[in-house]
Amino acid sequence: MTFKDLEFMLELNGVMRNDIDSILDFSRKNGINEEEIDDELNKMGYERIIENELNSGWDEDEDDYGHVEKIKSRSKFSEDYD
After folding, report:
1. Do residues 24 and 3 lie in contact, with contact meaning Cβ atoms separated by under 8 Å?
2. Do the domain assignments include residue 17?
3. How many domains does the chain divide into?
4. Tens-binned pLDDT, residue by residue, of the chain (82 aa)
């Protein structure tokens, strides 16, 4: 994870700008450690954003969608336009 990725993730989760800057400064000094960043977010009053984001990725195979079959469109006859 890069600093830009971290900044983007924090912005998407509604972290205030001054808190994002504080977390980025913390990460530059201590490295990007997900657990430590989440601990800092907890101290600021936020939930564990990074842990929750990484555990619920987009590419999970546990979706509830089955096979989708495309329905053929209806043929249009000249009678349809009268």
Report:
1. yes
2. yes
3. 1
4. 889 999 999 999 999 999 999 999 999 999 989 999 999 999 999 988 887 776 655 555 555 656 556 556 666 665 655 5
